[in-house]
TrEMBL record:
Protein's UniProt keywords contain Membrane: no
Residues covered by the ANTAR domain: 187-248
Key words, A-Z: Kinase, Transcription, Transcription regulation, Transferase
Translocase keyword on record: no
Annotated InterPro entries: ANTAR, CheY-like_superfamily, GAF, GAF-like_dom_sf, GAF_ANTAR, WH-like_DNA-bd_sf
Coiled-coil intervals: none
Name of this chain's protein: ANTAR domain-containing protein
Length: 254
């Protein structure tokens, strides 16, 4: 099996981890009200995000911070959206978010998040008035502000803020939301790399074999081969050890 086919196989076997968190306040964050220092609040949030120890805890912290930082937000979630518009929730502040995000639209429907494939933001001003969003209204969610965190040809990772009031998100919420998601994306990438490098230390023999195979196949040095392996793992959302094992197993087969 070639490396490209191997990566595609690895991606198909990958399922995002699910977990639930309870919404809470961060008492040490600067007050966030009219006239407050937005930069100071975002800096404190960025520090909190970079203190997390894993991608899962980064997502956990991000959804709670979103409720505190985005003006008008009552709930928040982070999810992965597939090309067929199926949606899987990775982190949520309470069960109403999970109910709003899990599953997929009915056949032929194009939900609000479909717009995220071509735009960085998708909004629902009032779910009682927007066509096709009655399910949100039934859950008591009237406003939605959904922002891209990551994007590739097959999937999107998005952070979504929800409000119980209609037209809850104004220009200030949009501006803060976009700045905050930039911080979340950087922190998530950093946590992912740290986790991969830690795992690489634990499985260095397997990683070494895979690196050697890539050196031979791609005619590159050890540093370039390892960097290629890490980037492929991150891009395809596959654990480094699993990707290395597949490369080694494919190489050993006749």
């Amino acid at each position: 099996m070639c490396c490209g086919a191997l990566l595609r196989t690895a991606v198909r076997s990958c399922t995002p981890k699910r977990f639930v968190v309870v919404a809470s306040r961060f008492s040490d964050l600067p007050p966030f009200s009219d006239g407050s220092d937005v930069a100071e609040a975002l800096t404190a949030a960025a520090c909190r995000l970079h203190e997390t120890s894993s991608p899962d805890s980064t997502l956990d912290t991000a959804v709670r911070l979103a409720v505190d930082l985005v003006p008008g937000a009552d709930h928040a979630g982070i999810s992965v959206i597939e090309r067929d518009n199926r949606r899987r929730t990775l982190a949520w502040t309470d069960e109403v978010v999970r109910a709003a995000e899990d599953g997929g639209p009915a056949a032929g429907e194009r939900p609000y998040w479909h717009r995220l494939w071509t735009a960085p933001v998708a909004e629902v001003e009032d779910s009682e008035g927007d066509g096709g969003e009655g399910a949100l209204s039934d859950l008591g969610l009237r406003s939605v502000l959904s922002l891209r965190l990551r994007a590739d040809r097959r999937r999107l990772t998005v952070l979504t803020a929800y409000a119980r009031k209609p037209r809850a998100f104004d220009e200030a919420a949009l501006r803060v939301g976009r700045l905050f998601t930039a911080h979340v994306g950087i922190a998530l990438d950093s946590a992912t790399v740290r986790e991969q490098l830690t795992e690489a230390m634990r499985t260095r023999d397997l990683i070494g074999q895979a690196t050697g195979i890539l050196m031979e196949r791609l005619d590159i040095d050890a540093a370039g081969a390892f960097d290629s392996l890490v980037r492929a793992s991150q891009r395809e959302n596959v654990k480094l050890r699993d990707l290395a094992r597949r490369i080694v197993d494919a190489h050993d087969k006749p």
